[in-house]
Specification:
It is built from 19 helices and seven strands. It is an alpha/beta fold. It has three domains: 140 residues, Nucleotidyltransferase, domain 5 (2-Layer Sandwich), CATH 3.30.420; 135 residues; 120 residues, no CATH class. 31% of the residues are buried.
Length: 431
């Protein structure tokens, strides 16, 4: 044990919706206190009191003078299985070093000391305190992101959740239409469009849809700001009037009611998605790093906001481009045992970040000649599309890291000039 750890307190916090089981240990692993605290202000106050009662004011080993409150708080290390919520923010605000630990890591740590499979909240608090005491040097403390970045993260995730909710409703609508009105799927190729939702709500059964006029269909398309309305309205009307198999009247009526409900839900979700997207874009543009993110190839305002939200803006969080790539899960991992070595993609990752970086890589193929050439090079090496995109995303993460560190905007020549081989000189004409 390091000498400086003698006066560090290690706290394990096993949280639940309405309470926290906590354990306080000293540097030798001795349990100093254990308690169940209520969620909220009263619980946080009791936790501060519990820690203050056992935190020495001086270091007898080093002969130091009493510390101020900030220095003392920094000698409290807290392990907890989440990084979100008011409780965690209260711990960070108090100056404690907070380590958000993946529940899977805690489960594996618990198995190191017991094979019986016993589990309790108090035992989990003990394991968390033990983990930060013995393995704290290998754990990542919670990022010190700015409040603006935290707000962007909330908006970004809420926006993405609504899109996924809408996708679920669209899939339900598609399955419903297949059951009684498959002609609608031939007429409407996108069930999320405003004109499609409006027309299905107005005419949710085959008979009513066949009575829709081209003028009614065209008017819905105009409200949705479609182009080529005359031809598209004629094609939709023809598809809806095409003879098809039908169900009995009571069954059709039931499905039609379900379709009306689903279209209403989809319309409401689409409206809220648009509202959140506007708020997300506006909040992102106010971030000091927005210009750097927007300068990267393949990053529009929404995807750029997602990337910033998931990476965070703590300048000290990523010591190098490699550490940022590792967190992004774009860099591979190597498994080596004896004479056998294999390279694999990282399957444990931040799924939201991976999705955003994949979208960036896909968009960069069009907006950046250097990115396109790098992707083509990976394909020429025999990689498949997804693997080549992951390699490109890995490279783009490194470029982003360099731009953020230097505070400079993306430059195509600087990013790719050293990787693009000059064209071979033309052969001299024969004399």
């Amino acid at each position: 044990m390091r000498v400086r750890d003698i006066n560090v307190l290690f706290v394990g916090d096993d949280w639940a919706e309405d309470h926290h089981d906590v354990e306080v240990q000293d540097g030798s692993g001795k349990r100093l206190a254990a308690a169940r605290l209520p969620e909220g202000l009263a619980g946080v106050a009791r936790l501060h009191e519990l820690i203050a009662a056992h935190l020495p004011d001086t270091d007898p080993e080093l002969g130091t003078e009493p510390e101020d409150e900030d220095d003392a708080a920094a000698r409290v290390w807290v392990g907890i299985e989440t990084e979100r919520g008011p409780w965690v923010q209260a711990l960070v605000a108090a100056g404690y070093r907070v380590f958000p630990i993946n529940p899977r890591q805690v489960a594996r740590y618990r198995e190191r000391h017991s094979n019986a499979g016993a589990k309790s909240d108090a035992a989990d608090a003990h394991s968390l305190a033990d983990m930060v005491r013995t393995d704290g040097h290998q754990l990542r403390p919670i990022a010190g992101d700015s409040e603006r970045a935290a707000g962007i993260k909330v908006l970004s995730r809420a926006h993405q959740r609504l899109i996924r909710d809408r996708t679920r409703q669209v899939l339900r609508l598609r399955q419903t239409l297949l059951e009684y009105f498959p002609a609608a799927l031939d007429a409407f190729d996108d069930l999320t469009r405003a004109d499609t939702v409006e027309l299905l709500a107005k005419a949710p059964d085959p008979a009513a849809a066949a009575r829709l006029t081209r003028a009614q269909i065209g008017a819905a398309m105009r409200r949705a700001r479609r182009r080529g309305i005359e031809d598209k309205a004629a094609a939709v009307a023809a598809a809806l009037r095409r003879p098809c198999l039908t169900r009995s009247e009571p069954v059709t009526a039931g499905f039609a009611a379900a379709t009306r409900s689903l279209t209403a839900v989809i319309a409401a979700l689409s409206s809220e998605i648009t509202t959140l997207e506007q708020q997300l874009s506006a909040e992102f543009e106010r971030h000091p790093d927005a210009a750097i993110y927007r300068s990267q190839p393949g990053l529009g305002p929404v995807v750029a906001a997602r990337v910033l939200a998931e990476f965070g803006d703590d300048p000290g969080r990523y010591a190098s481009a490699s550490s940022r790539k590792n967190y992004a899960a774009t860099s591979p991992i190597t498994r080596q045992s004896g004479k056998k070595t294999s390279v694999h993609a990282r399957y444990v990752h931040n799924e939201r970040l991976v999705d955003a970086l994949g979208r960036q890589a896909q968009g960069a193929l069009v907006g950046s000649p250097g990115a396109r050439a790098y992707y083509d090079l990976q394909r020429a090496r025999g990689l498949g599309h997804r693997a080549a995109l992951r390699q490109l995303a890995n490279r783009l993460v490194g470029i982003l890291h360099g731009c953020l560190k230097s505070g400079s905007l993306y430059d195509e020549t600087t990013a790719w000039g050293h990787r693009l081989e000059p064209a071979p000189p033309a052969a001299a004409d024969a004399a």
